[in-house]
């Protein structure tokens, strides 16, 4: 099938690679503009652009599609289908209606749950035991189109967002490649979403990543997993120091006050309901370390308040 691909980050790049490998004709690629990255602010191409250029595919990087400035170019490319994976731009009606088979989107949740930009992270933050991928026929709403295909994926009890995202990416690329020929064959049955069951998955930020030792152990554990690898969950000690936590485990307590150190090997701290073992941390202004080393640096002992 002749496909116009639209996407930007790593997950989109993996999907684009899969479509090439499946033998589809990629007539063009739309992606976001190159951005300065790192301390030296080196202008860096999106992952999708790099993949497209390796295959000699034309790449387009407009600021927006909503003003109609790309309509003529998209019609000239004459795609049978537009495939969208984490593009980052809203598609207007003129683009949605341009291809013979319309536009489909890979969304990494079981729609209508977790519409928005961070569905994988919110599934972990909320302690869900499963998520999935959905292939959706796009309309003018935000992740509101009919679902063509979905596949469930179990979430491990200790799995981080980053680990889950790697697995979801692989499943998503496979399901997408299975859906494209099925669309052409007319064997997919669009299923309208139950909009009343929709939930949102907004972008994460560093402020949202904060937790408190007065939260429950389950909440803290999920927050640490869900905010990993970015922006990383953090809390403030009784001494006013910010500490990021990159790995923890739920533990038991005997009803001690939140923040009470129960053990230092491993560093175990009481919270509102149970306790957490702080296995790996990044203290403010310091390098990553295990929790026991962190406790030793503060000369903590059982009964102290962290």
TrEMBL record:
EC number(s) for this protein?
2.1.2.9
Give TM regions.
Answer: none
Q: Which InterPro entries match?
A: Fmt (IPR005794), Formyl_trans_C (IPR005793), Formyl_transf_N (IPR002376), Formyl_transf_N_sf (IPR036477), Formyl_transferase-like_C_sf (IPR011034), GART_AS (IPR001555), Met-tRNA-FMT_C (IPR044135), Met-tRNA-FMT_N (IPR041711)
List the catalytic activities from the record: L-methionyl-tRNA(fMet) + (6R)-10-formyltetrahydrofolate = N-formyl-L-methionyl-tRNA(fMet) + (6S)-5,6,7,8-tetrahydrofolate + H(+)
Q: Which residues form the Formyl transferase C-terminal domain?
A: 204-298
Record-listed (6S)-5,6,7,8-tetrahydrofolate binding positions:
109-112
Matching Gene3D superfamilies: 3.40.50.12230
- SUPFAM superfamilies in the record, alphabetically? FMT C-terminal domain-like, Formyltransferase
Query: What CDD domains does its record include?
Result: FMT_core_Met-tRNA-FMT_N, Met_tRNA_FMT_C
Family membership, please give it: Belongs to the Fmt family.
Outline what the protein does.
Attaches a formyl group to the free amino group of methionyl-tRNA(fMet). The formyl group appears to play a dual role in the initiator identity of N-formylmethionyl-tRNA by promoting its recognition by IF2 and preventing the misappropriation of this tRNA by the elongation apparatus.
This protein's name? Methionyl-tRNA formyltransferase
């Amino acid at each position: 099938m002749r496909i116009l691909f639209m996407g930007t980050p790593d997950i989109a790049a993996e999907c684009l690679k899969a479509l090439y490998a499946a033998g589809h004709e990629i007539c063009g690629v739309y992606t976001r503009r190159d951005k300065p990255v790192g301390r030296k602010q080196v202008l860096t191409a999106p992952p999708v652009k790099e993949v497209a250029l390796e295959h000699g595919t034309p790449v387009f990087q407009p600021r927006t599609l909503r003003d109609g400035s790309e309509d003529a170019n998209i019609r000239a490319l004459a795609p049978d289908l537009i495939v969208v994976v984490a593009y980052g731009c809203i598609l207007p009606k003129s683009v949605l209606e341009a291809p013979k088979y319309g536009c489909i989107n890979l969304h990494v949740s079981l729609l209508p749950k977790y519409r928005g930009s961070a569905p994988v992270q919110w599934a972990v933050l909320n302690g869900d035991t499963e998520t999935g991928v959905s292939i959706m026929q796009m309309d003018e709403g935000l992740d509101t189109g009919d679902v063509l295909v979905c596949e469930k994926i179990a979430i491990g009890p200790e799995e981080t967002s980053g680990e889950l995202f790697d697995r979801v990416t692989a499943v998503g690329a496979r399901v997408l490649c299975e859906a494209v020929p099925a669309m052409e064959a007319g064997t997919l049955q669009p299923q309208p979403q139950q909009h009343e069951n929709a939930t949102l998955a907004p972008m994460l930020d560093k402020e949202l990543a904060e937790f408190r030792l007065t939260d429950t152990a389950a909440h803290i554990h999920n927050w640490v997993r869900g905010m990993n690898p970015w922006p990383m969950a953090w809390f403030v000690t009784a001494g006013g120091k910010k500490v990021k936590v990159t790995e923890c485990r739920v533990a038991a307590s005997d009803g001690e006050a939140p923040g009470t150190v129960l053990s230092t090997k491993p560093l175990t701290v009481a919270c509102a309901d149970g306790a957490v073992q702080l296995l790996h941390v990044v203290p403010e202004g310091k390098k990553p370390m295990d929790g026991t080393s962190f406790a030793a640096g503060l000369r903590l002992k059982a009964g102290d308040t962290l």
